[in-house]
Amino acid sequence: xxxxxxRMQQYLQNPVQFDPLPSDYQSWSAQxxxxxxxxxxxxxxxxxxxxxxxxxxxxGLFFTALSKKMDLQADEAPKNWKKAIHAHGAVAKVxxxxxxGNPFTGVFSGADYGLIRLSVTRDPSDRPFxxxxxxxxxxxxxxxENFSALVSLTGQGDNHNILANEFSTIVPVVNxxxxxxxxxxxxxxxxxxxxxxxxxxxxxxxxxQTVAQPIYPRELFLVPNPAIxxxxxxxRDFRNDLATLxxxxxxxxxxxxxPREVGxxxxxxxxxxxxxxxxxxxxSTSKFVSSFYGDYRLFFRHQRFKDE
Length: 308
Hints:
It is built from ten helices and eight strands. The longest helix has 13 residues, at 30-42. It is α+β, with helices and mostly antiparallel strands and 308 residues long. The protein has helices at residues 2-13, 30-42, 58-63, 66-71, 177-186, 200-203, 238-242, 259-262, 270-274, 292-296; strands spanning 89-98, 111-120, 131-139, 142-150, 167-168, 220-224, 250-256, 277-284. It has an eight-stranded antiparallel β-sheet. Helix content is 23%, strand content 19%. Residues 184-189 have low confidence and may be disordered. A hairpin with a 2-residue loop joins strand 3 (131-139) and strand 4.
């Protein structure tokens, strides 16, 4: 409850008030949408001092309308939306550059305008450090395409380098009280709370053209650039680490398995991961910024996983 009160206070203290998105926003080009959110929303609401990281708000998560997280196709959250998990993060502009021979369609073939948000599940002062990311790729004249990824449900121990380990859109189930409780809450809206679907990203390209026969991976693996070596010791804030990265930095190499090569092979195994090949790179096109809008209003849709 204390975390909720802190966030309410931050709402009251925030000097930036946002009008609703323009009525014709969805019809804009991908570039115009990215620049509007960056210049008119994110930059004006940068924090003068970083708010403290928070514990998971379990009651808040229980009462969150999780169906909106799965179904709402929007770049801005409803006005009273609150993040009960991954409450604070840092956002940067990015582009996805497809690798030669990448077999996948839609925005997997390349997207010049996007936003990435890196965060941690909760305050890591007395818990394992648990990174997460959310990616939004803008599309001309249509809604954006989004996905999220985690290192794992339990994090990476005492290593506070947010880019120390790879992220995936599917993570193994963990038989511990905390993850089990959160999974039970998410099971109200999805049968697969530890898996996210990425088919939609293959169904439309960056220019808003619908793909007749989409080809998409079952799972994505995002491998951090090994040249980015933040210290692993605790006592620092990952948002300050990210703020040191310059624009045009390679953040992740994205790997995936062509489903036509593995058939019904199950993911999340070492064998499946070893078959994944690079399909492109995520590069920053700005510095990372921590802001009120990035924490409270920027919205990333989760796609329900479907068993096919």
